[in-house]
Amino acid sequence: MSKVVLVADDSKTIRTAVEMAFGSNTGYETISAPDGSTALKLAKDKKPDVVLADHKLPGLDGYDLLAAMKQETATSGIPFIVLTSIQKPFDKVRGVGADGNISKPFLTQELLDMIDKVIESSATKSTQPEEYEIFIDAEPPDSAEDGEEFDIEFPEMGFAGGHSEKPTTPVMPAFNPGAVASPKPSVPVSPASPKPSVPVSVASPKPSVPVSVASPKPSVPVSVASPKPSVPVSVASP
Known about the structure:
The protein is α/β, with parallel strands linked by helices. The chain contains 4 helices and 5 strands, in the order βαβαβαββα.
């Protein structure tokens, strides 16, 4: 079965040159569009194997066509090659998502090799399992201890999460006035017995050392000298 190449270019010369490059012996069939809007419609209807679009198409240019196809589920997987020129090289910013680019004028074999390469690369990608890149931006609760594990689930990827040491938090059922679940009996918690007090030995004070009070020295009796007896003075008579 021939592979379909959609050529979108406002130049009839370029469209004819591409059609001639993919002759009947190459295993390719070409369809063409003169502008971006027509090319987008053909891409949705024909589901080509590859799209070759000029960067300066009328209406939707090549980069706008690329963006529009990547937004559509039916056309997002179709390989896309941008035709550029020497005066206007490939725009790496607007051309994000393109599978390749080739500058005009180009060699026929160069174009054939590039288209074969992008189609083969696209087929390889479709057979590989889809990869997911997960970004986790979360903080554990304040009560979490260091090294504690948590369950992480990604149901859209078929991953239910691994076993965690932390028990999952029970989810309270929606309140139903007609059927009030009886509360589970509380489990008595035995309070931890206090640790026995350790007797503290109080060091007994050192016995007071009796202090001997020096007895006062006995007072020495002081002998008071008795006054000498007065001597009578004889007065001579005149």
